[in-house]
Design brief:
By secondary structure, the protein is of the alpha+beta class. The chain has three domains: 1-62, no CATH class; 70-88 and 147-227, Roll (PH-domain like), CATH 2.30.29.30; 91-141. The chain has helices at 70-74, 90-113, 119-146, 184-189, 212-227; strands at residues 3-5, 12-14, 27-28, 31-32, 39-40, 47-48, 82-85, 148-152, 155-160, 166-171, 175-181, 191-198, 203-210. The strands form five sheets. The chain has a four-stranded antiparallel beta sheet. Strands 11-12-13 form a three-stranded antiparallel beta sheet. A hairpin with a 6-residue loop joins strand 5 and strand 6 (47-48). Helix 2 runs antiparallel to helix 3. The longest helix has 28 residues, at 119-146. 20% of the residues are buried.
Length: 228
């Protein structure tokens, strides 16, 4: 049972209470009687301001979870919970966006030449190139939206692939180290590659994650809290 702050009077009350014993404010689930949704800390249950990034009660950081974790959620076992997940850096979308732009450019060139002197070039080069770039663009964006890098209180999940799926799971007691690599552009734009090493030769690489050093630190902070 956790203690939370009443959204009306600010007094500490039990999270199991339906009404505040001090002011009578109705508290049902995550909503109060004014029908506004409360922002609750996932660790201690304290009610926080809407834009809070750190819990004032337990110090839990609230802004380090992102990305998709549908696959992980479907494979959680009893007592397992998601601690944090990675955010893909915006440069991933820019790279695949360039492929989408090239697809449009080659398509327009093909339209321009389809009835001209270079009709063979249009059907032999421009249109096929446009289709290839478009396929890489769609597949790349879909992969980013479907890939997962999730840390639970028991395991690390890494899942990638759409048509052909590859998943990597590492029990936390088997975790040996997490290394971060950043090149020049990675340090400038704030992205990097994370290498997850398990005991032995097991390892997995996740590229172009947002704020990799902060994310690695957040992982170890969460693991320390779970072990205490």
């Amino acid at each position: 049972m956790a203690l939370i702050n009443c959204p009306e009077c600010g007094k500490e009350i039990s999270s199991m209470e339906k009404t505040c014993p001090n002011c009578g404010c109705s508290i049902v689930g995550n909503t109060t009687e004014n029908k506004q949704t409360d922002n609750r800390c996932p660790d201690c249950g304290a009610i926080l301001p809407p834009n809070a990034t750190v819990c004032s009660q337990c110090g839990c950081q609230l802004n380090k979870q992102g990305g998709s974790h549908k696959f992980t959620s479907q494979n959680l076992i009893q007592g397992e919970k998601i601690l944090c997940s990675a955010k893909w850096h915006w440069i991933n979308y820019v790279l695949f966006g360039i492929l989408g732009l090239l697809s449009v450019v080659f398509f327009m060139l093909g339209i321009k030449e389809v009835n001209g002197w270079y009709e063979g070039l249009a059907w032999g080069v421009y249109f096929p190139s446009s289709v290839i770039f478009a396929l890489f663009f769609v597949y790349g964006i879909a992969s980013l939206l479907d890939n997962e890098f999730v840390v639970t209180n028991m395991r690390i999940f890494i899942k990638c692939g759409i048509i052909m799926r590859a998943s990597y799971e590492l029990r936390l007691e088997m975790l040996e180290s997490i290394q971060v690599y950043q090149g020049i552009f990675g340090r400038i734009f704030g992205y990097g590659t994370i290498l997850v090493h398990g005991i032995g030769a097991s390892r997995r690489i996740v590229m172009r994650l947002e704020s990799p050093l902060e994310f690695r630190q957040h992982i170890f902070m969460e693991l320390r809290k779970e072990n205490n």
